[in-house]
Design brief:
This protein is an alpha+beta fold. The protein folds into 6 domains: 84 residues, OB fold (Dihydrolipoamide Acetyltransferase, E2P) (Beta Barrel), CATH 2.40.50.140; 71 residues, Nucleic acid-binding proteins (OB fold (Dihydrolipoamide Acetyltransferase, E2P)); 74 residues, OB fold (Dihydrolipoamide Acetyltransferase, E2P) (Beta Barrel), CATH 2.40.50; 69 residues, Nucleic acid-binding proteins (OB fold (Dihydrolipoamide Acetyltransferase, E2P), Beta Barrel), CATH 2.40.50.140; 80 residues, Beta Barrel (OB fold (Dihydrolipoamide Acetyltransferase, E2P)), CATH 2.40.50; 94 residues, Nucleic acid-binding proteins (OB fold (Dihydrolipoamide Acetyltransferase, E2P)). The protein is 19% helix and 39% strand. Helix 8 packs across helix 9. Binds mRNA; thus facilitating recognition of the initiation point. It is needed to translate mRNA with a short Shine-Dalgarno (SD) purine-rich sequence. This is 30S ribosomal protein S1. Belongs to the bacterial ribosomal protein bS1 family. It comes from Pseudooceanicola sediminis. Keywords: Repeat, Ribonucleoprotein, Ribosomal protein, RNA-binding.
Length: 560
């Protein structure tokens, strides 16, 4: 009977053991450390199963393992039995599974997670999130680029999960998001205590081409280069250094973007308040050239006060020259104040006004009629440009080149660089023009020769050349031509060959053409005039006297 009872109890126990659930492979189970040997922990996971785990799996990155016999731990059961009859378990995979569950919940709740940067990879860093490894992109490490991440390695700190994929085992985190959030809170608190116009102390954190960022105690403000000083500042490093403490004024606060604009010059006296009194119109001052542009040069009259010398006000004579060829940066120059616009903070200056107008000077020293000598600077289709004292030019028009030649022909006699003499015909100071005449040097020979000669006058000329169409004659050095038809009243005597070079001939002036500089001469007209005069004096056609008798009497009278 007793034997039957023991058999029944054994059968019940056996059935109970069969009915007990055994852990599934691929799940996390609890175990107890029963021994530590050869760098491994031997763990009893129950169900008469034991497994081994490397001690390093119990350590956080950069730390030593903290585990002892008797500790209860969770491990991941990969396989119930291996070739040695031991369970294949992993503490690391258990931690990962546990971490993923925790991280997924944090991701869903948009909560921060704690982790430590423990390695560097291409494009960023690796972060241990308590069993799960995440990727931290380089752009998400800090608000500003980080050159040395050494101080951050192994340091436990909060991160924000940006993206995660459990199936692929990918997690992307950000440290920058945490910093920006805390900075935003800090910025809001600091900004709440700032007011526009307030003067505060700050530390220069960064310098750029356009200004400097100043730390006001947890919040940065931008100090633009134009607000650093009343004078021109080419680069912020001229007056600021990183780490320097400066006093600035809050110019503007943008409540929405939390941007703060700062100024230094606003705490100094504005030099423009006294500009009108210190620099009256037409006054001359010495300044320094600070900047040169295509349209002129900026001249500093005093720190904070600059004026523009427009290119048109730089030189009396150099019209199409770049300002950089007239003045140079840092050069000391004398300028005249031409205009002041205090509202726009502009001063118009003149450089040429400090020197006398060269056309006025020339007009005083070379009045009309004076003869000057200069070099031919340029030859154009309408005349010559001649260099004159004072670095100015005068123009000789084609019509003022020669008395005897057409202007188009006369200009061929000149070359660039020739020295010529010319008479000043006109000086127009307002238009900056000087008219010269080469042909008037030495006077007008034609006018001198025929000054007393009028139409109808009888003059004596000398034959200088015999041609088929007539003869060339000369009167007081001026050449004229008598056509064949004007050689005699008698057609039979209208022969050029009856004259010889050097013959003296009396002729009648039929025309004085000052424009063409020619005298119209005729022997025929003289003979007709003499005949008419003889008829009027000695007879008429009604007296019965023949023309021969009248002319004979006239000639006889002339002889007497």
């Amino acid at each position: 009977m007793a034997q039957n009872t023991s058999m029944e109890e054994f059968e019940a126990l056996l059935n109970e053991s069969f009915e007990m659930d055994t852990p599934d492979e691929g799940s996390v189970v609890k175990g107890k450390v029963i021994a530590i040997e050869a760098g491994q922990a031997i763990i009893d996971v129950g169900y008469k199963m034991e497994g081994r785990v490397d001690l390093k799996e119990f350590a956080n990155p950069g730390e030593a393992a903290e585990i002892a016999v008797g500790d209860e731990v969770e491990v991941f059961l990969r396989s119930a039995e291996n070739a040695r009859g031991e369970a294949v378990i992993s503490r690391e995979m258990a931690r990962r599974e546990e971490a993923w569950d925790r991280l997924e919940k944090a991701y869903a709740d948009d909560a921060r997670v704690e982790g430590a940067i423990f390695g560097r990879v291409k494009g960023g860093f690796t972060v241990d999130l308590g069993g799960a490894v995440a990727f931290l992109p380089g752009s998400q490490v800090d608000v500003r680029p980080v050159r040395d991440a050494g101080p951050l390695m192994g340091l436990k700190q909060p991160f924000q999960i940006l993206k995660m994929d459990r199936r692929r085992g990918n997690i992307v985190v950000s440290r920058r998001a945490i910093l920006e959030e805390s900075r935003a809170e800090q910025r809001a608190e600091v900004i709440a205590n700032l007011t526009e116009g307030q003067a505060v102390d700050g530390v220069v954190k960064n310098i750029t081409e356009y200004g400097a960022f100043v730390d006001l105690g947890g919040v940065d403000g931008l100090l633009h280069v134009t607000d650093m000083a009343w004078r021109r500042v080419n680069h912020p490093s001229e007056i600021l250094a990183i780490g320097e403490t400066v006093k600035v004024q809050v110019i503007k606060i943008n409540k929405e973007t939390h941007r703060i604009s700062l100024g230094m010059k606003q705490l100094q006296e504005d030099p423009w308040d006294l500009v009108a009194a210190k620099y009256p119109l037409a006054s001359v001052h010495t300044g320094r050239v600070t900047n040169i542009t295509d349209y002129g040069a900026f001249v500093e009259l005093e720190p904070g006060v600059e004026g523009l010398v427009h290119v048109s006000e730089m030189s009396w004579t150099k019209k199409n020259v770049h300002p950089g060829k007239i003045v140079s940066t840092s050069q000391e120059v004398e300028v005249m104040v031409l205009e002041i616009d205090s509202a726009k903070r502009r001063v118009s200056l003149g450089l040429k006004q400090t020197m006398r107008n060269p056309w006025e000077v020339f007009s005083e020293t070379h009045p009309e009629g004076a003869v000057v000598e200069g070099e031919v600077k340029n030859i154009t289709e309408f005349g010559l440009f001649v260099g004159l004292p004072g670095d100015i030019d005068g123009m000789v028009h084609l019509s003022d080149l020669s008395w005897d030649e057409r202007g188009e022909d006369a200009i061929q006699n000149y070359r660039k660089g020739d020295m010529v003499q010319a008479m000043v015909s006109e000086v127009d100071i307002e238009k900056e023009r000087i008219s010269l005449s080469i042909k008037n040097v030495g006077g007008d020979k034609f006018a001198e020769a025929v000054g007393g000669v009028k139409r109808g006058a009888i003059i004596t000329v000398a034959v200088t050349a015999i041609e088929d169409g007539g003869v060339e004659v000369e009167f007081e050095g001026m050449k004229s031509f008598i056509r064949r038809s004007d050689l005699s009243r008698d057609r039979a005597e209208q022969r050029p060959e009856r004259f010889s070079v050097g013959d003296k001939v009396d002729v009648r002036v039929t025309n004085v053409d000052s424009k063409s500089r020619r005298l119209g001469l005729s022997i025929k007209a003289r003979e007709i005039a003499e005949e008419k005069e003889a008829v009027e004096q000695y007879g008429s056609s009604a007296s019965g006297a023949s023309l021969g008798d009248i002319l004979g009497a006239a000639l006889k009278g002339d002889d007497e």
